[in-house]
Amino acid sequence: MITAAMRGLERSVQRRARITPDVSAIGAIAARCLVEELETWPKPGLVSHIDNGSHVDMDAGTFRRSAAAIEPHLQRLADAGARACGMGRLRIIGLEAEHAMFVATSGVNTHRGAIFGLGLLCAAAGARAGGLVDPELSLGEVVRRLWSDGILDGPVLLHSHGSAARRRFHAGGARTEAANGFPSVYRIGLPALRRVAHAVPEDTEAARVEACFALIASVEDTNLLHRGGFDGLRFAHDAARCFIDAGGVSVPGWRTRAQSIHDSFVARRLSPGGSADLLAMTLFVDAHESPCR
Ligand SMILES: CC(C)(COP(=O)(O)OP(=O)(O)OC[C@H]1O[C@@H](n2cnc3c(N)ncnc32)[C@H](O[C@H]2O[C@H](COP(=O)(O)OP(=O)(O)OP(=O)(O)O)[C@@H](O)[C@H]2O)[C@@H]1O)[C@@H](O)C(=O)NCCC(=O)NCCS
Ligand SMILES: Nc1ncnc2[nH]cnc12
């Protein structure tokens, strides 16, 4: 006999199933988002399946190998989230993922920022799929509630380009973004992605390009600071903002304009790697929180 309580449980499980995939699928979804980020063009200064942007030491193959190598670790982070692990355990898995990335790329840093941010979102998706948190909470909010103290108290990398840029320019970088629940994803990336996905559903790449430019226009990207200082960051913000304010991908000829901005970043050796990571995170959150998928 089905009781009212069982019916209520069934309804709540169905509602969660609509927005929460199986824990075992989370790593594969995350890796797919990394590949979708790569296969987005034009992305100012960044590597894609079309060209290497402002980079001489990596290409699309390097990024594909990196994404494949870190996928099992992204899944381990999801499993750890489902087991209610704390930041100490997540950090150990994150460092093992970084090691796997460096082995796969022969020492090139392709995805350190993505391992950190996307990894935390995978752990949050695991916690949500495992029923440890309110299923209505966004993934960013789960990260903020469960791990923000551990994120901010974690050991500082003394020798990364990012930490040098943060010391010199007092930028917040990847940790601040994560500890605050990924405001750039929720306030900038997702609205831009969904605006275009709604208007032009057949061109998913256009939606990713719009989200990428919107992110570059506002993120305090430590990679841009590392390569171009304040002037480089300002140039990137202004160029991307100009593209979005002129109508972005809704205006005919947008690809040519986007390509010329891409060329102007390459001419200055600028690379917004943090915004690329945030694009992958935007795609991941969209895959988990879009009610109609
Ligand atoms: C906590 C860490 C993230 C520490 O890293 P770091 O001290 O370096 O901190 P950040 O500068 O804040 O950023 C780290 C990377 O995050 C990306 N990023 C930059 N700005 C932002 C931002 N505003 N918001 C979010 N994310 C951001 C960016 O990653 C991308 O760039 C990388 C390429 O960098 P690099 O090699 O330096 O640059 P190149 O230009 O290629 O070098 P050259 O050619 O000039 O030589 C690439 O990885 C992209 O992903 C920042 O680099 C974290 O690393 C840490 O502590 N990890 C330990 C594990 C852990 O705690 N994990 C938690 C659970 S998963
Ligand atoms: N496509 C890309 N190009 C350069 N740096 C990146 N970091 C993450 N994705 C990137």
From TrEMBL:
This protein's name: Probable 2-(5''-triphosphoribosyl)-3'-dephosphocoenzyme-A synthase
Species for this entry: Bradyrhizobium diversitatis
Keywords: ATP-binding, Glycosyltransferase, Nucleotide-binding, Transferase
GO molecular function list: glycosyltransferase activity; triphosphoribosyl-dephospho-CoA synthase activity
EC number annotated for this UniProt entry: 2.4.2.52
Pfam families: CitG
Stored PANTHER family: 2-(5''-TRIPHOSPHORIBOSYL)-3'-DEPHOSPHOCOENZYME-A SYNTHASE (PTHR30201:SF2), TRIPHOSPHORIBOSYL-DEPHOSPHO-COA SYNTHASE (PTHR30201)
Family, as annotated: Belongs to the CitG/MdcB family.
HAMAP family, sorted: MdcB
Function text: Involved in the formation of 2-(5''-phosphoribosyl)-3'-dephosphocoenzyme-A, the prosthetic group of the acyl-carrier protein of the malonate decarboxylase.
Gene3D superfamilies: Triphosphoribosyl-dephospho-CoA protein
Gene name linked to the record: mdcB
InterPro entries: CitG (IPR002736), TriPribosyl-deP-CoA_syn (IPR017555)
Keyword Glycosyltransferase: yes
Record field: catalytic activity: 3'-dephospho-CoA + ATP = 2'-(5''-triphospho-alpha-D-ribosyl)-3'-dephospho-CoA + adenine
